[in-house]
Amino acid sequence: MRLSLTKQLLKSLSLVLLSAVLPASAAPGRSASNVERRATVCNGHAELCEKSFGSVTFVGAHDSYAIGNSNGNFAVNQDQSITTQLNDGVRMLQMQAHNQNGEIKLCHTDCSLYDGGTLHDYLATVGDWLNANPNEVLALLIVNIDNVPVAQYDPIFKAVGLDVHSFVPSSVPIPAASWPTLGSMIDSGQRLVTFMDNKADGSVPYILDEFTHIWETAFDVTDPAFDCNINRTSSNVDPAGTMYLINHFLDKTVLGNPVPFVEKLNVTNAASGDGSLGAQVDTCMAQHSKPPNFMLVDFYEFGGGSVFEVAARINNVQFDPSHPVASPVPSGASPSSTAQTTSRPLNSNALSDFGVFSYKMVLPLFSAITGAVLGPYLLFL
What's this model's pTM, rounded to 2 decimal places? Predict the structure, then answer.
């Protein structure tokens, strides 16, 4: 009996202690750590915790998965690994998804030109980084180029655990002014925001339709002036009330195809000056009375962190150049083993693609050479 009484006393004491530790507002099913936790630093700055997702500017990596040496490979847009991109401060990862024999893969234009591996492996890398960095809010932008039903993306997100991190709005679309703060997103654990350019029909609630939330400027731009006109948006919303994204990557034309203008990257990614990222932001501010929410760039590390300097200026936080970003891959060198996830710059059938060129790029050159060689003879036939 004495032992039974002791057990009852211990049980009562444990309940008293538990009620003192747990706040009265704790909801059933939520852990005490989720309720009590309050983020004090968000995306590297305490000042951003009270700012809404719709009022913060994020640096984005255009074709983030298309990783390789920037010198001579026209199929790549980055030369740092996904993990390095995120460690350096990239907070939007853009990708192009393809249906490759029933599997969702990340390819550039065509999987025979650049095969960046599976979406599953890519998202697993993102999930590992999010788990290791609990005070960060991240955005994904999926270009669903083969119109894969959004329901096919759901099991991949769940398989790598990203559904747990994903932000689910109470209603859509969300006006730019109505997004939660970064601090509240971190506190709730829902700190991954995923947009998709088409087929996001609401059946997967955490994959949001891009163009009812974001409008974009023109892409594949070859004019270094970089205007800030609305290029892509939804007819169902007023662009004035949505977030917007600038495509700030300069291309040049090779054989009739736009490719990254690598030689001008230090100018294009600069914080100021003609053709710079900073200059386009100034243009957008003057035209739309608010800064862009997302700035997509190629080879973000060119400029020595200047793209992050621009974001810091917009967000009114301190830019710290004492923490340098990764250095560009030297000419002739190959990215390190950590610079790619499962990507490979070219498929094994290199002859059919003429190195970094697809058949669509080589055909005009072949025709021109054939005409130049055979033309004089044909005149006499």
Answer: 0.81
